[in-house]
Every structure is written in structure tokens, then in C-alpha cells.
Amino acid sequence: MADEYLTAEEIAIKWGISTRRVQKLCAEGKIRDAKRFGKSWAIPTCAVKPKDGRKKSSLERETEK
User: Fold this and answer.
1) pLDDT per residue as tens, the chain (65 positions)
2) What is the rounded distance in angstroms from the CA atom of residue 15 to the CA atom of residue 31?
3) What is the total count of domains within the chain?
């Protein structure tokens, strides 16, 4: 069975984030098996949304105090 891929725009809708954020995650290598074709990204349909490392959880903030 051939792998199926979605565009960055389709993944953005699926995950509820911006297209630019998906592109940045791809460029940083945080989306496994994402492939670049010219200016576009091909992302496997089974790709898992990476954890957003930009925000700290309330538990992380509490342990810093």
C-alpha cells in the first residue's frame, strides 16, 4: 500500500494550527517523515502533532518556584 500524504495546509486544518506553524515544524524536523518538494511539504496522513514546546504547563511553572 502506498503512503498517503497531506499538504501543510491540510495538516494545519486537521491539527487546528496555522499553516506557517506546520511549515516551521517540518523545517525543524519535528514532523517525522515530512518531505519537501520545492516550496511545498508532503506530510504523512498518520503524522502525529508534536508537543508545543513554546509553552510551559502549569505543573512546569509550579516546579520552577
Assistant:
1) 357 999 999 999 999 999 999 999 999 999 999 999 999 999 999 999 998 877 766 666 667 76
2) 12
3) 1
**Cα separation values, 7 from 39, 44, 52, 61, Å:** 11, 9, 20, 35
pTM: 0.77
Nearest CA among 37, 41, 52 for reference residue 11? 41
Residue 33 domain boundaries: 1-47
| Cα–Cα distance measured from residue 16 to residue 6, given in angstroms and rounded to the nearest whole number | 14
Per the domain annotation, does 6 fall within a domain?
yes
